[in-house]
Amino acid sequence: MWTGFTLVGYFTPIHELLNEVLTLSTSSWETFWILFYGFATYGNAGFMREQVCKYMCPYARFQSAMFDHDTLIVTYDTERGEPRGSRSRKADHTQLGLGECVDCSLCVQVCPTGIDIRKGLQYECIGCGACADVCDTVMDKMGYPRGLVRYATQNAINNRWNTSQMLRRVLRPRVLIYTSFLVALLIAMLVALSLRIPFKVDVVRDRATLARINDDGQLENIYRLQLMNASEQDKTFRLSVRGLDGVALASDTQVDVGAVQSRWIVSRVTVPYGAAPGSHAIQFVIEDSAGKDHLVEKTVFLVPR
Known about the structure:
By secondary structure, the protein is an alpha+beta fold. It has three domains: about 1-50, no CATH class; about 60-160, no CATH class; about 200-305, Immunoglobulins (Immunoglobulin-like, Sandwich), CATH 2.60.40.10. Helices cover about 35% and strands about 25% of the residues. It has helices spanning about 1-10, 15-20, 30-50, 50-55, 60-65, 80, 95, 105-110, 130-140, 155-160, 165, 175-195; strands at about 75, 150, 200-205, 210-215, 220-230, 235-240, 250, 255, 260-270, 280-290, 295-305. The longest helix is centred in the middle third of the chain and has 22 residues, at about 175-195. The radius of gyration is 33 Å and the shape is elongated. The model has no long low-confidence stretch (mean pLDDT about 90).
């Protein structure tokens, strides 16, 4: 229910939505989406559970494309752990011909996707490391060294490398290429945020009336503008028009829009009678009251023959 509430809070102001929920006065659509997302959250996290990780989450699919034999993954040291088998704490497993795995199956029980890491890396593994943690507790109780299940690489396991030898393979071409991609994406995101204009404008021509002559004898086109203020402060926008000789805005040139609100307005644009017939490109110029940001939206002015 909290998931549904917070998601609907993206569309209905959260304080207003909270008051509506407390007074049981939410609209039918708000009620539907809160219940729907609440049900979806229960279905994913409470009912399907590990099935979501196995069949719906793309993480495992990315693993096979991105990892190599020097990638840190959750691994089971087969040479050290096999053959597995139960024994008492006081027994010498080497005399019994056993490895250090006591076959307690705790690693399987704590795994959120229910896999057995002792069978090797599987696509269901989400790399949480729960199996490594619980295995270390068993190793402590048995008096064996930790790390039977640990984060390591396939090359480190096969070649019996220590930690320093394993980390020497970190800066390899695959890692450098992926890192450069991530850095480029981060820079692009920061640039986009720094250049972000906190308002948007949609311009829609009035299709009911293509063109008409107003009381002043000028040709007039009608437009509907949607001004969307994405900032947290109330803003006043200044409107102007350009792109055609004699073009002018015959309606309000200033519009107030509340914080995180949108507003539709009707704008009348005129040109002197006798302008060349046809479709002419014009631009609406919208500036905020501070004059720091402005948008230019293209449209057409129709002059009948």
